[in-house]
Amino acid sequence: MGEGGFHRIYIGILILIAILTTSYLAYEGYAYYLLGIEDRFFHPDHQTLKPSGILGHGFGIIGSLMMLVGVLMYIVRKRVRRFSRFGILKHWLEFHIFLCSLGPVLVLYHTAFKFGGLVAISFWSMVAVVISGVIGRYIYLQIPHTIEGREMSLNEINQTKDELNRQLVQVYHLDKSALQEILQSVKKRPDRSGKSMLKRSIAKFLFEIKIIKEVKTILRRNQISAKNIRQVTALIKNEIALNRKIDRLITMQNLFKYWHVAHLPFAILMLIIMLVHVAVTVTFGAHWIF
Length: 290
Ligand code: HEM
Ligand code: HEM
Hints:
binds protoporphyrin IX containing FE; elongated
């Protein structure tokens, strides 16, 4: 199994941990969490699941630590040159997303689904950062990155495309004229004029199916074996995706700059009020298992 295979399993395990933890806690606690504030007091799980209970408090501490670690390790790895050879930045971002998704879920269980007081600001900032994170992740994926996770320049993207075309010729023995024909197809753009966003997306989706069909016809005409057609089509889909990203590269790079400016303040607001919240609860005598 190649490195890609192991990486997929690793990502799968992270997703599984997040889903299992979330559903296990929901399953164990829903009877308590669904109760109104007055009724909770009499529920047998109140002493453990309330925000200051042994479990509820623990969720808050572990969830907050996960977020702290998730943010700090990513910033240090990304910005401190000394650590720049330590693993692949993309993988650190994936771990950031894992810790900063499961962390907020644990904090949600810590609040026992009741968000009052000053710390509610911290909670809603956290929600804002998570939502903004999802949007940021989407923008990030629209910008081609190197394997190490650095943004590619237009030059590098074009080199990647040349490399794809070289593979088509050298590995799959496509002749030059067939390649030209395919590149012509792949270059075409759907009609974008005067349609709503939904209609444009549907049109784009159908258009790409049509292009792939065209490409497959060209491949069959050029006696590419059925086995290779699948692999060649995958390469060409890559190329179409790259073309689409090039079209929107400047927009997405600008959006991503603004996004960074918006993502950080909520993270800081969340952190500061969280620290105040911890200071207040500790001052009023909260202690966990120590
Ligand atoms: C972003 C992180 C956190 C958020 C959003 C948060 C939010 C909350 C909320 C909404 C409550 C319930 C307040 C109420 O009942 O009116 C609460 C209670 C509590 N939290 Fe947190 N919390 C966070 C982190 C922490 C951490 C790290 C600790 C401990 C080190 C902690 C300790 C407590 C304690 C002891 C209570 C119970 C207070 C009481 O019942 O009087 N929290 N928290
Ligand atoms: C409480 C939750 C979170 C906090 C506090 C947080 C905080 C941060 C911080 C401080 C940065 C560094 C910004 C910078 O480099 O200038 C960052 C980057 C990022 N985060 Fe989060 N984040 C959270 C959750 C998420 C989630 C859930 C996602 C995705 C689903 C996400 C996706 C990203 C992405 C894509 C980047 C940019 C990476 C880059 O440009 O190198 N974050 N986050």
